[in-house]
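Form 7-S
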Amino acid sequence: MAATEYTDNELELTRRAWHLLEAFHDTTYFVKECRTAYKDLGISDVWTRYFAGRAAPMGRVGAGTVIASFYNFSPTMVKAAVPSVWETLDPATVVKARFTGVEAALDRLIPQHLNSDALAEAAGLAMSVARTGRPEGKPIYAANLDLEVPSQPALKLFLAATLLREHKGDAHNAVLLVNQISGCQAHVLMAAIGHGKKEQIQSFRGWNDQEWDAAVEDLSIRGLIDEQGSLTAAGRALRVQIEETTETIAAELYSSTSFSAAERLIELMSPIVGDLIATGELPTARSVYDELSEIG
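Output:
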């Protein structure tokens, strides 16, 4: 069976809707109420909170499962947090804390939207789209599919946004794997297009200099980066292919319903996310597509 093809407009709608929902999801990583919810459980380390929060829907998993499914973190960094975090905490408790933190954060940041018809419609529409995905090969997405859908619209929207981001993330990891790009190599390629600096990436993904240099050497041998660490023509072509394949898989969710759902989500979510970003408590990130276009 041939792969499904989508129009440029359909892929652009998918991408725009994903970025809005991704920003909504990002609340869980950057807003103080979310940190506090985990700290109240005794998780003070930032990366233990991160690994526990994302992995909790999968249950009491060990480091190997997190290394495999998260893909681009140093095994050493993961092992510092997992499985020791489960010695004192049940994963279900961590899942509950994640929702508790998001609820408190949104109550403070965008109270004007929480009881709106627009947010309720967005939550229902996003959830209907998010639950149409195929779970095979998508471990984090599949684990979140098993969670009970909250009745509160804002939390339903958060879970839907989580499903959409993990569906795409799992797919992206699979595309990297097929193209024989390791977790560390993926970051070297991102640095090569200006999406983060080596030292910054190492600080929040845990790869040491030896591991980074080995990744650089492998990519250089394959002709994907040059002596200055910049993408070659072959490297750029591969990065474009990886992004396009990932986007095609992500678009499957909307093709199961209708791309008009993406249009409507963009309409509904734009003012909500606009006000959320305007608080200044979430980071802004440039699109990989923009960075690839700037290098030819």
